[in-house]
């Protein structure tokens, strides 16, 4: 068949019709911008990324307002046009908070080996990014819980060791009264240890799920677990709970309170009558839980670093340096925050702000 100008024109019209039909019906946001940065055609879904009407066809892409939180689209187009081997991929966000993978691919006329422009495609990746972020959050929570259980389980074990020494001494002295007291304390510590392990291991992901928890009950369990140390240091504990319930993951709240109360016990001042006060109040949309003590305090120069991972400020008091790191991570992972107020030789206050108050 001999091609004639009429045949070529018919084929060209058909190609143009096919291209226009494709762009009109595809559900993928796409734009065709020529080598002079003129918008030639676009798919209707692309109107989400750009404030487009069909009157914009034939205008410079730089003069068309976009709805992207990304200001280098024109520069990216020019870069791809200059380099025919380059395919550019960027993750960009729209002003309504959606995320897209923007692909800019050169449009090449193969017969003349010329770049006649670019095809810009937007692939919605919002759900994928949200899923990845949720997975990262879960991984972070599990990592924090791993540190928490390793840290929190040390105290009950230390307490049981101390009780064993007391039992041995009472046995040697044939002091049956003291022996029975130590046995009772041992049972209490054992139950506390068992409860701690169950909190961290039972129900899997349910322990990372927010639920309404009784603060008073959790505090009582923690104070029972720390009974030996509190009695030994003659510390007076008081509570003022204007809010008795918090919405928080169970094992996390127990770990947060345990670490703060235990720190207050460990860093009490032996030269004064030690007190620890636990309070809850409402402040705007937050419930604020505070742990106040009159202990040795934290020097000003160290206060910004106390939440660092594995940081130990005291070489004479036993610890891993993980407690406050775990507390801060757990609070922030659940949309809260923590504030520290402390003065050396006067005491320390930790204020925890729980976003999901009830």
UniProtKB/TrEMBL annotation:
It holds the Pfam family PAS_10. It catalyses: ATP + protein L-histidine = ADP + protein N-phospho-L-histidine. The keyword Iron-sulfur does not apply. InterPro entries: HATPase_C_sf (IPR036890), HATPase_dom (IPR003594), His_kinase_dom (IPR005467), HisK_dim/P_dom (IPR003661), HisK_dim/P_sf (IPR036097), PAS-like_dom_sf (IPR035965), Sensor_kinase/Photoreceptor (IPR052162), Sig_transdc_His_kin-like_C (IPR004358). PROSITE patterns: HIS_KIN (PS50109). Keywords: Kinase, Phosphoprotein, Transferase. It comes from the Bacteria. Its EC number is 2.7.13.3. GO terms for molecular function: phosphorelay sensor kinase activity. It is an enzyme of class 2 (transferase). Residues 148-358 form the Histidine kinase domain. The keyword Transmembrane does not apply. Gene3D superfamilies: 1.10.287.130, Histidine kinase-like ATPase, C-terminal domain (3.30.565.10), PAS domain (3.30.450.20). This is histidine kinase. The lineage of its organism: Bacteria, Pseudomonadati, Bacteroidota, Flavobacteriia, Flavobacteriales.
